Amino acid sequence: MINHQVLLASHVRIFSSSCRLSGSLNPNAAMSTFGAVVHPSVAEQKHALRSRIKKELRSLPADQRSKEDTEIQNFVLNSPWFKSAKRLCAYISCDALREVDTTRILSEILKNKTPGVLDHLDHHTQLRKKLYVPRVEDKNSNMRMLHISTTEDLVASSMNIFEPSPTDASGNHREDAMLASEPVDIFLLPGVAFDRQGHRLGRGGGYYDVFLKNYQELAKEQKWKQPLLIALAYSVQIIDENEIPVTDNDVSVDALVSPSGLIPITPASFKDM
């Protein structure tokens, strides 16, 4: 029998390229021999920031991190926007990467209600939520979000990363969020650093940015409401405005959930959250 809590807590996500710098003069800029200011490249700035935040995450005491995990997950689970969401894409947290834990959130989504059946105890209860989780396809920033209904739908990749298998036990292809007939309501996103303007610094692979841009374009073509992009962040991951270098390829989030609660950013988050 698979221990679902241990399995969920074991999953890994490896994610996050180059035109426009955001903010004022970077303090890491160097002077050339002619006295002109030479800016580090965007990639260099992002690498330095990732290194700094990762160090701070490693230094976060285990009891403090556990406390923040509990606070963040409690807030999500008790939020009206989570309770009313029917279709969600969510990452499977990886302890080694110091990602905000999503174990309880995923367990709640995968609770043992029969798909398509209303709770007979409460006629107001919505149909079972549908969950899509990431599957990395290659090293070229290609990722899919595939539907799972149980943790037993997850398999270990060659890198010992747990992801949804591409087919189910009957050999049928799993439903892909990009090919689904109904829209995703909410994306719960990981990352390394965030600011209160909604900028997100990922892990450098570009997987989420590519997928989210494609999904937003799909929603536009289908005339669907755009999904809410919600990042989960420890206190040390929320940094000052203009610290995150921004490029045309980066996708911003609508809101953050931190240990202190919701930080709405976009008009959509103020309206729907």
From TrEMBL:
Gene3D superfamilies: NagB/RpiA/CoA transferase-like (3.40.50.10420). It catalyses: (6S)-5-formyl-5,6,7,8-tetrahydrofolate + ATP = (6R)-5,10-methenyltetrahydrofolate + ADP + phosphate. It is an enzyme of class 6 (ligase). One of its GO terms (molecular function) is 5-formyltetrahydrofolate cyclo-ligase activity. Its EC number is 6.3.3.2. Keywords: ATP-binding, Magnesium, Metal-binding, Nucleotide-binding. Its cofactor is Mg(2+). Belongs to the 5-formyltetrahydrofolate cyclo-ligase family. PANTHER family: 5-FORMYLTETRAHYDROFOLATE CYCLO-LIGASE (PTHR23407:SF1), ATPASE INHIBITOR/5-FORMYLTETRAHYDROFOLATE CYCLO-LIGASE (PTHR23407). This is 5-formyltetrahydrofolate cyclo-ligase. It comes from Dendrobium thyrsiflorum.
